[in-house]
Protein 1
Amino acid sequence: MMFTKRLRPRIVSGEIDCSVRIWRSPRVKVGGRYPLEGGQVVVEKIREIGLSDITPQLARRSGFEGVVDLLKVARHGAGTHVYLVDFHYEDAA
């Protein structure tokens, strides 16, 4: 999983523990480990949600100021399915 640079320190600290992604199909799997900043993001849960499920609270939990800010990053490519990915960060040590 790739994350915008500005979110990475907050993911490593544990402040951010989820991500909203708009894909054609899931690009990660539960239990999957994805490298990030000397450690890894471990996917705990992934579920499809609707655009209307993206609330200001969810946007902030994902590390964004609001829904519009989140959608600017989440919308890329031709994907139409919205996924909520819950994860935690594990240090490599």
Protein 2
Amino acid sequence: MLWIKAFHVIAVICWFAGLFYLPRLFVYHSECKDNAGHERFVVMERKLYRGIMWPSMLVTIGLGIWLMVLGWDFWKTQGWLHAKLVLVAGLVVYHFMCGIYRQQLAEQRSRHSSLYFRIFNEVPVLALIAIIILVIVKPF
């Protein structure tokens, strides 16, 4: 079980690296005015989203489910876990929103400003803080 936890945490870190970095790329992409810069951002965003974020999210969720199945009698009564799962579901929605924004920017049809993406970029930080507190402190 410790090996599964270790790889779960590694996958979480990789996923969050993408969740932190991709919206930051959106900030710079939305401010970009030249075609060469636009094409560079399209490639960077696509590789990050498809090559790092998707696999990391799938491994995170898969190993998380595996951990819950292994310790089901314990986990099913833990309120903090239910709260964490709600936050993880929100992060999955955020992940898909990143995919939508990535496509809009690639097609040059994004309606959002760099300020919007700067604010959007803070969402996973707040989720991560809440998740860490739930997992370590277990307030429920």
Protein 3
Amino acid sequence: MALAVKLSENLVNEAKRFGEVYSRSTPKQLEYWIRIGKIAEENPDLSYHFIKDILLAKTEVQDNEVTPYSFD
């Protein structure tokens, strides 16, 4: 369900700049920040980089882009 939300012009402009760098639309950049922020609030001991790596790993598993690790 889509919902209209008022955001500050500064936040939207910053999201636009970051979105251009990471090839995301402004709304997708805002969604990304919200997702990261929610995870960080729920897990205050995790760093941003660790959260990002977990999300990347989760996507790789979903896309079957992983190989089993062998303890030889």
